[in-house]
Structures are given as structure tokens and as C-alpha cells.
Amino acid sequence: MPEERRVQVSRIVLASNNRGKLAELQAMLAPLGIELVRQADLCVGEAEEPFRTFVENALAKARHAAQHSGLPALADDAGLCVDAFGGLPGVDTAYYATQFGYGKGDDNNVKALLEQMRNVGDRRAALVSTLVAVRSPQDPEPLIAIGRAVGEIAREPAGEHGFGFDPVMFIPAFGKTFAQLPPEVKNAHSHRGQAAKQMVQLIRERWL
User: Fold this and answer.
1) Residue 3 above 70 pLDDT?
2) What is the pTM of this model?
């Protein structure tokens, strides 16, 4: 029965320590009136991400955060999938730069990507976000939402907003990179924005 699945949700732990993700998801989940808390603020360490798909890693992170916090959990596994690279770096996006001798970080990731694509003509790519929410560590029915923003890798960074690959993710429909768009516009059309919109609807229908 639907009523058996209802839970009292006022706080959800975010299975990430990325402040950029926290800020974006807080804004996107605001309509639910639920407080989103970073796992680090609850002394929860990061989960291992041994899988090769976004959904498996997001589910592992969500279950880990729920287990160690006692709260419902939301996890986001996101990455860049470049057509010319067969969909890579995918789940390895956060560590992309380390493959080429650079330290981990957004700026180095962008630098490494532009170097690797210097002579690549096919610039098509997609930013993918998979959100998974669980009521408890053993939740047999996780909520899963997937967003995908398709664009092209620019030849050089542009824009001051956002994080990650936003400065080189050129969106033809806007004629700008994600980093050049006002945050509210980006959030409405980004991979994470699409996934969050679906997740808000799922939480409202299934949990509240």
C-alpha cells in the first residue's frame, strides 16, 4: 500500500562533500522544504566507488551515507561522457587529470581534457547526472533519476559560473558554455537540474 511507504522526511544527508553540488542541489530541492546536509558535517566519510556505472556508484554512496547517518540519503554520481573517447571519462571524471600527471581538481581536469582533445574534430559530449535516494541502508526501492545535458567541448574555457567542466561545456541552444550562463538558467537545463527535477517529483510522490 502506498501509505506504508510514507516516511517523515525533514532532513536528507547528501552523500558528497562537494560544496558546488550541495549548493546546486539545495536550490533545486528547495520546493520540498527538506534540509540537505553534507555528510562531512555529520562526520560521515566518503564511500568507495568501485563500479563502472553512475547508478551503481550513486547507490553505493547513498546506502553508505544512510548507514552512517541514520538519515535518508541522496547521492549524485555525475561525469563527462565524450563521444570521441567512447563515453569516457565517465565515472572516472573527478580523477581525469591524474591520468596525465596532474593533481586532482577541476582546473586540471579542464586543462587535461583540452590537451587530449587538441586534435580531435568530434567535440560532442554529454554531462550526465544520476541521483539516487534511499530511505534507509536496506531500502529495496531506491529512487533513481537521470539527467543528461548534451553539448560540445569548447576549444578554450569561458565563463565564471559553475564548477567542474562547466567552462568548456558549450551548449549550442544557448550559444554559451554552462559557466557563462546565470546559475538559475544553468540549473534549469543542466544534467543535475534535469535529474533533480525528476527526483523532486519522485520524493513528493513516494515519500511525502
Assistant:
1) no
2) 0.88
